[in-house]
Amino acid sequence: MPVTSVEKDLDALTMTIIADFPVPVRRLWDAYADPRQLEKFWGPPEWPATFTRHDLYPGGRSHYYMTGPDGEHAGGYWEFTAVEEGRSFETIDGFADEDGAPKTDMPTTRTVYEFSETPGGSRLTTTASFNSLEELEQLVAMGMEEGTKAAMAQIDDVLADLRSFAAGRALEAQLLNDTQVRVSRVIRGTVQQVWDAHHDPELLRRWLLGPDGWVMSEVTVANAVGQTYRYAWEPTEDVDGEPFALTGELLESDPPHREVTTESMEGIEGPPARNEQTLTAVQGGTLLSLVITYASTEMRDAILATGMTEGMEASYARLEATILEAA
């Protein structure tokens, strides 16, 4: 059982939970930084979590929901008010609807997660601060303490499975719900290097190519919210295929961590997809996490059936090689 102590201070309106783990601090930190790992233990076993957004940087947000035994959903959000990579982060935690909007009639807590070394590995000290004694008692009565213990009891299995999340593995695609897919890959390189490679036209021409035999004929980058981008490809003489182009609008930008765009293929009718890309520093490089939202399940499945993820893996492998060559 990782949890070694739980202390409630009714005068200070805090609850502090200490848990010890037989792994280095970096390994424990990455379990919280990577939504693929976090959702394997955030929430009790009978209420597994799905993270549709996870931005571990100051000013970032996380949106998640837990699914109960009968399929019911309970949503939550984090606002990251402070992050010291590898050492601590602080959040405002609250309840949310399925769109991630805060439920203002429910309590919020300010929670500090502190990671430290121990002779046997690492320690996580989680201190939740409540707005009032009534809210503390309400959340404890709702099972906050028991739920946290049950959730942390699952972390050991996640920490033992480093290979599934390490650099050098191919791209992973996960269906989050009926319309969303999350594409994840660790890229060897810093967050800034990966961000720059997505915004430098000359670098984009070197790696954003999909399968062998294609070249980019146009690279128009959107660098400010409201601008549009256009990327066009054409096959070389040795490859069969028709030229095509993707275009869209930059909706949000928070360099070098997060950006949100729309995406449409020219000549194809229908509403655009929404791409939310987050870059997070992890052991071995940068976790690139791309959540794509489609207008329908049918559209999502049709696009995945084209071999989209295989083309993305080929491009990301080139991206990694481009960064390593420049280092």
TrEMBL record:
It comes from the Bacteria. Residues 23-159, 190-322 form the Activator of Hsp90 ATPase homologue 1/2-like C-terminal domain. CDD domains: SRPBCC_CalC_Aha1-like. Belongs to the AHA1 family. This is Uncharacterized protein YndB with AHSA1/START domain. The lineage of its organism: Bacteria, Bacillati, Actinomycetota, Actinomycetes, Micrococcales.
